[in-house]
Each structure stands twice: as structure tokens, then as C-alpha cells.
Predict the structure.
Amino acid sequence: MNQFFGNILTPQFGYSVIRVTTPLLLPALGVAISELSGAANIALEGIMLIAAFTGVVVSAYTGSLWLAFIAGIAAGVLVGALLGFFHLRLKADIILSAIALNMFASGITIFLLFLLTGDKGSSNSLQSLIFPEFKIPLLHAIPVIGEIFSGHNLLTYLSVVAIFFYWILVKKTPLGLRIRAVGQNPHAAESVGINVNKIRLYALMLSGMFGALGGMYLSMGYVSWFSRDMTAGRGFIAIAASTLGNLTPLGIFLSSLLFGFVNAVSIYISSLNIPSEIIQSIPYVMTVLALTFFSMRKKRDTL
Amino acid sequence: MEKFLVKHFTLIRTLVAILIGVFITIFLIILISADGLYSLQQFFLGPFASRGRFSNIFENAAPLIICGVAIAFAFQAAQFNVGAEGSFFISAAVGTAFAVSTSMPPVLHIISILAVSALTGALWSGISGILKAKWNASELVSSLMLNYVAYFLGLYLINHHFRDKKAGYLTSAKLPSSAILPRLFSGTRFHIGIIIAVVVAILAYIVIFKTKFGYELRMSGQNVKFAKYAGINIFKIVLLSQVISGLIAGMGGVMEVMGIHHRFNWQSLPGYGWDGVIVAIIGRNHPLLIIAASFFLSYLKIGGQVLNLMSDIPSEMISVIQSIIILLITAEAFLGNWKAALNRKISTGGTL
């Protein structure tokens, strides 16, 4: 046990918490923005996969990180728009179409990966790029704090920007106001001339953008390749994180950090003599517990 | 004619969606394969080309029917519990553990293993059920998370406590012969599981469509407020629909172990629970239609496997096609204009 705390109370541990929080925080913001509009997007799992795959492939074939970035975002936004098309235009149940899109994403990425590389497992044979890591001047020089907060991937810093972006978007812009209005009372919003479906479509596209950033972080930062189903349920944990965060920027940040912390602990705990299967199940158990706790509190508040 | 078309509109829409899926398949195969005609032939006729493959269609349909019916039970009550995958897996692990550590006469052994697994599945899925019924916690999120927990716990149980150390790979000990589902045709793995699955589907049909409980279930699924005013115990419906869902899915997993592999040899989630979502949607949550949908999906999957083996096209093409079919089926407005035109024609006496 002492060894365990010895491992946890290190700057490296703090660093890895931030590292594993990034791919939860970004899609959680994506879930939140769609949920605010009243059209909850549970296809983040699929959006992340498709963006992760697109980023890797485009960077490998063009050699340009910028093009890969743009293509990845475009892919995520496109899947978000597709979900919007099916739900808003073709009146499909949003949960069922999102489940279908998640399956589609899992299948199409493996399908194309095989056609491009002849391998169904990972993109190891592709020379794909990763986003650079940044050492923040001054901060980097500070002991402990520098080791924790400096030297992260570009997309990790972008995820911090994304929190502020989300906050400004939701609280300070006309679009954000409309998104909230449409989510709270679509009929009232419609009666003052807001096009409900259009606003929800925008929200779903924004949600795709956040998801795409999270997906690209996985394949072009967290690791430097694409592997099949590499999101491993992060898109679903994001739903929990956004729910626990009560759709507020600070709340989402803290709940994502909580899941990131548990995730990191489960990596570090392997120094103890606990079977890895048990450790790997911890983040998911925690998610259920947290979901229960917050639902209990919510229920108590509404009574 | 128009009246007939309108009456069976959803069925027609489903068939059109499937047809579009098949056309996309043909198009993709011709586009990608170096020898398109040969690949097409392999895909469509391959599943019937040998006794073994033909029997595969039936073997594969059994878990699809079971999981489809399990999902339908929850979906009928508008409970988006997608935990069939987890119930399937953890019940198979617990059932295997029970099977290898007990000895009983053949029929009794099989029945008690099925009972233990069904109970495990019911309890597992009941977690999401009770969280939803009591505190309104999203069953979608909790069942998604519990799928992963079930996966890791199932692996832990088998890999650490019931592992066959003599086998060269991670697997459970072999099931005793008393725990093995009898096979119907020699030389194939065609076992009585398909019969159990069809019986389960028929029972589910009776419960959902012919009993008071089934009526309450469907009513709460369609309009929970109305159901509440009608005096239906929503707590009971929410909980039971998910418990029964897990109960059914729990049998499916161990039936695969007892009928096909004879040991627990999964090291990743086999995905039958998600396939259950697919056949439930294609069969529109109707247990008898789910039987048909399962045979169709099973046929597609075997076709995909043949293609994977005999040509240059990966079997994942099938998951792409099935998701397109589902998107079209769930799209209420798909072919909506056509329906509206038909209705106009009926109301104007066919003069349009």
C-alpha cells in the first residue's frame, strides 16, 4: 500500500491524470452541448472513432498535420450532422440512430483500415503524424507544477480552451441562448420564431466537433496509431461525465477529471497485487456509482 | 390496394430498407472486389454451399433470437437497457463456473445451469432496472457501463478461478458431458439451442401480446403518463421489463458455451447483445418477427464470413450494411411522402 501511495504522490501521476482526462473531457463537452439543445447525442463513441481514423489516414497520406486536423473535424461534424438529418428530418429515434451510427463507425473504420493496410487491428504500417507536445515557458521551470502541467499534447491544451469556448458559446452568444431555449421549451422557442430543428442541428454539429477533437487526441497524441474500437467506451463515459457535470463547464471539467483520476489510479494500481481485470473495471463501476449518487440527489431535490 | 399498402406500411418500409441494404452490399462488392461476380456468388450462395455453413445459419440465429427478444422486452416498455451484452457475458461465465464445479445427471444439469445463468442475467440487468425505477438514473448509461464491468468480472472469474491451465490459451476447463446441449445433426454444431430460442420467443410473444402484464408493459412504453393515470404500477414495469430482459439474455450466453464451444473461451465481448439490438429493431420488438430478423442477420453474417475467407472483402462490411438498414428502419419519415400520397389517393377515391 505504501508503494501505491508512493506511486500516486508523484508529479508523473498528476501528468497522467491530465493525459487520460483529455479524451473524456472533449466528448463530454460534445454530449453536453447536444443535451442542452434537447437532442442528446450518444454517438460520441462513433464520432471519436471516425475522427481518430480520418486524422491518422489523412496525416499519413498528405503528410500535413493541418489537413489531418481539418479533415478530422470535418468528419466529426459530418457524423453529427448525419445524426441530425436522421433524427430531425427523417424523424428517427435519436438513441436508436446513434446506436446505429456507433456500429457504423466501428465497422467502417475496420473495413477501410483493412482495405488501406491489409490489417484489421491497427494502422501501424501507416506513417501517421501526431500533434506536438508543448513545454510551456516559465511554467515548465517550476518544480512539480511544471512537471504536471507542462509538456502535454497540443490537443490537451486545446481541451482547456474548449471549456472556455463552451462557456462563452453557451452563456454569451445568441446561438448559445437559442440552444438553451430550444432545449428548455421547444414550443416556446418556436413561438418566438426560432427554428428548433436548425438550432438542434447546429448543436449536434458542434457536438461532433468536440468529439472529433477527442478522437484525434486518441490516435494522434495519446498513442500514435489507430487501432480498432480504440475509443473503448470513452464516448459512453463522456455521457456520464456530462450528466454528472450538470452540463456546466466547471461541472463537466471536474467530473471528467474525476473519471480521469480513477482511470489513472487503475493504471498505477497495477503495482499492487490485484488482478488487472478488477482494476480495469473500476472506472466503469465508479461511473455507475456516481450516476446513482447524482440521480439520488437530483430526485431528492425535485421532491 | 392502397389501403393494403398503408395498413402494412411499416412492414413495407422495413423490407425496402433491407432491400436498399442488399443493393448497397452488391454495389460495394462490385466496387471493391477484384473479381466482383465471384465474390457476389460467394456472398449470396456461399452460406448454402455446404452442410456445415448451412447449419451455421441456424447455430448463429439462436443467440440472436435470444438477445433480440431480451432487448425487445426492455424496448417495449421504452426502457433503453442495452445491457444484453453484459448479461450474456457474465451469465455465461457464472454458468460455466457452475457447470464445471457441479456434477448431476444430464438433463437436470443442463436445466440447473440454464437456471443459474438466467438468474445471474436477471440480477445483473436488474441493477440498471432498480437504479432507474428507484432514482430515475439513466438505464442507457448504467447498462452501457455495466457491460464493461460484466466483461472484466467475467474474464476475472474464468481466467483466475476456472482456467484450464493445460490448454495452450486462456479458456475455462471443458464442460462435463452432462452439461452439453445435444446436437441434432451429426457432423455439425447444430444443437437444440435453436429450439430453446424459438420457444423463448414464442413465450415472450404470449407474455407481451396476450397477458395483462404485457399490455401494461406496452402501454407504459407508449405513454407513461397515460399508464400512470390508468393505475399501472410504473415502478414494477420499469424494473421487471429490465429484469426479464437480463433473464433471457443470461440464458443465451451459456447456451453458446454448452452448445457450440463446450468451454468458455471468449476473451473479448462477442457482440451478441448489440446484434440483439439490431434484430429487435428490424423485428420491430415483436418476438416472432425477431425470429425472422435473426435468420436474416445470421445469413448475412455467414455470407460475410464466407466473403472474408474466399475473397478480398473484410467481414466488417456486414456491420456497415446492418447499421444502414437500421438507420433507414428507425427513420419514421423514410418513405413518408409515399405514404402521404397513398393516403391522399384513398381519401380522394383514387382519382389523384
Observations:
- Residues 106-135 of chain B form the longest helix (30 residues).
